[in-house]
Design goal:
Blueprint: H1 2-25, H2 27-30, H3 40-43, H4 48-65, H5 71-93, H6 98-117, H7 122-143, H8 147-153, H9 158-162, H10 166-188, H11 192-211, H12 218-226, H13 228-244
Helix pairs in contact: 1-4, 1-5, 5-6, 6-7, 7-10, 7-12, 10-11, 11-13
Length: 245
C-alpha cells in the first residue's frame, strides 16, 4: 500500500509539472488556439516566474518521494524528467509527437515495476510499449480538436499526419497495445479473466475506429478521449482479476 500511495502522489506531482512545462513551452502557440487561449499563461493571468516557482516546488516534492523507493528507481528517475521536458517541444520537430508523450507516460510503468521487483524483467518492456501505443491512440483522438488551428500555426500532430487515414493510424496503435498487453500477460502466466478484459477492450476500440471513419466534431473527439479513463480502469480490473484467478 505504501508503494501505491507513493506512485499515486508521484503521478499527480509529475503530471502537474508536465502540464506546467507544456504551458511554458507553448505559451505563444496557445494564444493562437481557440481551445487554449484562456490558459493562465497564454492569457497573461499568470506570469512565467510564478509558473517556474510552482514547477520547482512540484519537482522537489516528486524528487523527495524517490527516497522512499528501491534505489534502482533513482537511476530511472532522470529519464522521466528528461522525457517530460522533451515532450512539449516534440510538436515542433516530429509529425507524431504523441509518441514522445507515450514514452514519457510509459516510463512510469518501468519505474513502478522496478520499485516492486528491484529489477527490470521482460514483461515490463511490453507494458511500457503498450502504454506508449495507447497514448498515441488516445492523444491522436484528442488532437482532432485542434486540427485546423494546428495546421494554421504550423504545429505538428498525429491527427494532421494521419489525415484521412486517422482511423487506420489509431487502429494500428490500439492493436499494438492489445498485442503487447496480451504478451505481458502470457509472460507472467496471468489468468483468463485478463484476456476477457482485453477482448472487451478490443470491441470498444473497434467502435472508436469505426467512428473515426467519418467526420468528428471537436466535442465528439473530446468525449471519445475522455472514455479512455474507463479503459485504464478496465485494464486495472482485468489485471487484478487475472492475478487472483
Amino acid at each position: 500500500m505504501h508503494l501505491l500511495a507513493v506512485f499515486v502522489a508521484g503521478s499527480f506531482l509529475m503530471r502537474s509539472a508536465g502540464v506546467i512545462l507544456n504551458d511554458l513551452a507553448d505559451q505563444s502557440f496557445d494564444r493562437e488556439v481557440a481551445r487554449t487561449k484562456t490558459r493562465p499563461l497564454a492569457s497573461g493571468e499568470l506570469h512565467r516566474p510564478h509558473a517556474f516557482m510552482l514547477l520547482g516546488l512540484l519537482l522537489l516534492l516528486a524528487g523527495s518521494l524517490l527516497f522512499l523507493l528501491n534505489p534502482i528507481v533513482l537511476w530511472l528517475a532522470p529519464v522521466a524528467l528528461l522525457l517530460a521536458t522533451l515532450y512539449p517541444f516534440a510538436k515542433r520537430w516530429i509529425h507524431v509527437p504523441q509518441a514522445v508523450l507515450g514514452v514519457a507516460f510509459g516510463w512510469g510503468t518501468v519505474m513502478a515495476w522496478a520499485a516492486v521487483r528491484g529489477q527490470l524483467d521482460a514483461p515490463v518492456w511490453c507494458l511500457f510499449a503498450a502504454t506508449a501505443a495507447w497514448a498515441v491512440a488516445y492523444d491522436t483522438i484528442y488532437a482532432i480538436q485542434d486540427q485546423e488551428d494546428d495546421r494554421r500555426i504550423g504545429v505538428k500532430s498525429a491527427a494532421l499526419f494521419f489525415g484521412p487515414s486517422i482511423g487506420l493510424g489509431v487502429g494500428t496503435a490500439f492493436i499494438t497495445m492489445l498485442f503487447l498487453l496480451g504478451t505481458a500477460g502470457w509472460l507472467v502466466g496471468i489468468g483468463w479473466a485478463y484476456y476477457t478484459t482485453l477482448l472487451g477492450l478490443g470491441l470498444f476500440f473497434s467502435m472508436q475506429v469505426w467512428q473515426l471513419r467519418g467526420s468528428i466534431a471537436p466535442a465528439q473527439a473530446f468525449a471519445m478521449f475522455r472514455a479512455h479513463v474507463w479503459v485504464g480502469v478496465a485494464v486495472l480490473i482485468g489485471l487484478l482479476a487475472g492475478l487472483s484467478g
